[in-house]
Amino acid sequence: MDAYVNGVRLEYTDEGTGTPIVLLHAFPLNRTMWTPQLDPFSASFRTIAVDLRGHGGSSLSHTPYALEDLATDIKDLLDHLNIQEAIFVGLSMGGYILMAFYRLYADRVKALVFADTRAQADTADGRAARFEMVRTAETQGAAAIADIMIPRLLSAHTIQTNPALVGKVRAMILGNPVETIVADLRAMAARPDSIPLLAKIARPTRVLVGELDQGTPPSDARFMTERIPGARLAVLRDAGHLSNLENPQAFNQAVLSLLGEIGGTVIE
Ligand code: MLT
After folding, report:
1. Rounded to an integer, what distance in angstroms lies between the CA atom of residue 4 and that of residue 80?
2. Average pLDDT, the chain
3. Within its chain, how far is the Cα of 243 from the centroid?
4. What band does 256 get if pLDDT is binned at 50, 70 and 90?
5. 199-203: which pairs have CB atoms within 8 A and are 24 or more residues apart?
């Protein structure tokens, strides 16, 4: 399905009925990273997985963009779908976008799941590394970005034992234009510190993290959990940064337990 909103064409999957749940993907992937979540979530909830602008099948429009622009794309998609309020799951960059979304549109948020993400802005060194990756993308293309990103996204064990998953992640990265990869990197480098936001989050919240996540390790997840009122943490075994793909069963169970608590009927 697709919709023209906020000057871009967004492709999205919309399955199931009931309380809406919106899935926001990581850098530099697309909505198909949510494949293991679609059936379990849509059995009980209206599940919407969006290709962020410029990713997967969605159009890019202009660059640069800010993470706030991507958040507004999502808000406009909710308007288009006549959805007033949704549960949001954001993984890594999806989590950064969810923080921007909450800053701008808290009244549209029923509950939040932050997965494998962090509240801190980039350090000076982190920003310099992003600009180095911009140069790599511009000179060597998306394949070079895949080579850099795959060992950060997946645990060493997954890389050794699950070539099919590695191939899917690589295909998602190669499917994105270099312009999108560059715009994401610049937008993430410019994102503000969200630590002050954490204490203001007044909705049911789960924080999930793969126990082997190196980019946004369990210490980042603990830091967020301790500052969001009432938030609970789940550390997922045998998973790195893409915990929803590396341990989908534990990921789905953690999300569905939150959904059950906030009044949804979960069909097992
Ligand atoms: C992601 O998975 O979205 C990225 O690793 C986030 C980041 O680079 O900060």
Report:
1. 9
2. 96
3. 11
4. very high
5. 199/227, 199/228, 199/229, 201/102, 201/112, 201/228, 201/229, 201/231, 202/106, 202/229, 203/106, 203/109, 203/110, 203/111, 203/112
The amino acid at residue 149 is: M
Cβ-based neighbour number of residue 256 at 10 Å = 21
Query: Per-residue DSSP letters for 161-174?
Result: H-HHHHHHHHHHHH
Please tell me if the CB atom of residue 215 comes closer than 6 angstroms to any atom of ligand 1.
yes
| CA 150 / ligand 1 centre spacing (Å) | 11
Query: Tens of pLDDT along 141-168?
Result: 999 999 999 999 999 999 999 999 999 9
Whether 70 is in the pocket of ligand 1, judged by its Cβ within 6 Å, is: no
Å from CA of 230 to ligand 1 middle? 26
Q: What is the pLDDT of residues 86-109, one digit of tens each?
A: 999 999 999 999 999 999 999 999
**For position 261, what pLDDT does the model report?**
84
22 C-beta closer than 6 A to ligand 1: no
| pLDDT given for residue 267 in this prediction | 67
Q: What is the pTM of this model?
A: 0.97
Handedness of CA 112, 86, 237, 160 (dihedral sign): negative
Cβ of 242 less than 6 Å from ligand 1: no
